[in-house]
Fold this protein.
Amino acid sequence: MRRVLAALTAWLLSASLWGLAAPLQAQPTNSPDLALKRLLEEARARMPAACSQANADRLVKILCAKTIRIGVRDFYPLFGTRDGDKREGYEPDVGRAIGRMLGVEVEFVRVNAATRIPLLAEDRVDLVIATMGHNTQRDSQARFIRPHYYRSETIVVGPKEARVTKMADLTGRTLCVTIGNLSNAELVSQGARLMLFDEAGVLPERLKDHTCSLAAQDDSFFAYYFIDPDFAAAYASKFGFSQVPWGMAVARHGSDELGRALDLISQIFHRDGVLLDIARVNRIGTGFLEEQQKIWRGTECNTDSGSTNPACVLAPLNAQLQPTPFAASVSAFEGWLEANAHIELALPMLKTAPAWTVFKEGVTNSLILIAGALTATVIFAVLFGAAMASRLAPVRWLARLVTVTLQSSPIVLTLVIAATIVHAFFDYSDAVALAASIAALGLANGSNAGQALSEAIGTLRAEKAPSHGADLFSRALARSATQIVAFLINAAKGTPIASFIGAPELLSALTDITSFSSARATTYTLLLIFYTVVVMVVVWLCGKLRGYLEGRQLRTAAHA
Amino acid sequence: MSGQLSLFLSDFLPRFLRGMAVNFEIAIIALVIGLALGLLLALGRYRGGLARGTAASAVALMRAAPTFVVMFFLLNAIPRDMTLFGMPLALSGIMAVALSLVPYSASYISDAGLDAMRHWHDGSRLGALLFLPNVTRAFFVLVMSSSAGAAIGVTEAISVILRRAEHLPSLDERLLLFAFGIVMFGIPLQLGFALVSYVQRRLNRISRPAEPAKAA
């Protein structure tokens, strides 16, 4: 099968390239074909003298060596794979087509996401064609060839029966994503919850074992899995977003002529359908290439200056996140700490404006959540305590039934039930998620504290304490202070679980920040310190409250 | 209807029961580690001196550490390629949840252990034996708390319920499924607490330590 595909590719390319050469005589003087021919002739005219010059352009060096070194991926199904010495996929095929255009041999070099740009800078490859998205950050690291040779987008994949068709449907739902994917920021801004993974390779498996109900990743990644009939029968791409053009790249220095030649070749390849043919042979999506072919066949773009015409080429993805006003000071502090104390501290939440906003909201919401959960616990404790100590048997039984039910429900399930009920009546919003979390935490802890309160009332009645109504209740409150305080502390400790139903507290916020930045270790360490300190403050305040209540009980007993 | 019931019995129920087994597995791991650590801390607090101060501080810190945050910390802060004596230290989801419950179990067992040591010292063996029902109580709290694993993709019982719920179209059906989960968790929990009460009564009500709060 592979041989057939290889033969077909070679035939298509030969036919396409023959087509390129044949009508050359009829080309207008500003055609990309003539510009490329002139460029190659000029470079060859400087040979062999220029071959030994250290500062010769890489195009000359390639023509002298009769070989171009191309960095490609080793395992990126459909785009670049290796079986022994044989390389297959869209990108090696594009590399071979370029080699034919230049009239040189192709030597493939293995690269990955981390090495593709350094290898260019170190002159260990002349060109990389390695699934590299062209963004504004990378523009300063490599010279990208225009027009782009492919375009990917992030797609949301899920079971066919899942009712997800647009971004708004993701609000409040959990998606599995890979850390560092720039599209994560867009998902976060839509209110989606993220489950983070280090490697994209695990996502299809996590979909199959139901760990993930939805996953978001490049369409180029999922393309391979969708050729598996079983996967395609069970899962579908729901929608796409965050489109990123892919660029071939050469070194920023010493590659001016090579870059120019490749610009022209890429332009010609689009116009003549060479890239489209290669894509079809490799069974990858062709929508973008079809669009591009129309553009590069147009008279406005099919010129020797088309690759620099903003109306013809795509802009790189703007990946620069706006820095905070104090980002430089934060970076300086990180550097100082590393230099003087050898501590590698990274504070991504303080460096970019979106992260800083999410962080501030997270801290504020956490404090609101803790205060709300404590208040709700006290209110429900009093209500449950009064109901369970009621002289009316039906009220007592009902309160006990609710308490036993809440005790039997893991807190995660209680939160989910609260969120499900609340969302049945209200649209999802941060405030609704916070309110549902406060209600669930208050109910879970308040019912237990209420039970302790009712038991204290029971013991006071058994002792025939000379008190009734509010006085009895006040004495019971003092007697059950230890239990009530324990459940108040528990409510404060439980607040991070609210992130499970989408409450935008600090854990949620920092998970979002780490999904599109780095420094997970520092971020989660700071999170642990924050919550531990907050809980210790709550413990201290509760200790004061317990002291006050127990002191009052002693004073009441002394008066009695 | 019979088709749905058949699907429930043949597909969902076995998955749910396997999930519950994971909840118990997590609780057992957390309890075993918590017993070892908690008893050491209890011994330190019982002996006095520097050991007492150190152990008391450690217990106070562990009491304040929220389980859910500890779980995310363990999962994200430990480098994937970390090794200990040459052995890889990458945490599985189950181990991350179990270890996140250790601060709760160790601090609770330390408290219960310290009470038991004091009772033993005062000559009340029955009072010291209250340690056993307290450990049983902690175990069931750990089983309930292990559902936090649903947040990091551990296939325990609650995550099985939540995945199933995503495919149910109506609110009524989802609430019914959630009620099933509460009953299934409630049965062992209430039986466990009944057992604890029975043992405590049998131990002649010598000692009455504080009810533990759910790990959070």
Remarks:
- Chain A touches chain B through 59 residues (CB under 8 Å).
- Residues 387 and 396 of chain A are 6 Å apart (CA to CA).
- The mean pLDDT of chain A is 87.
- Chain A is about 55% helix and 10% strand.
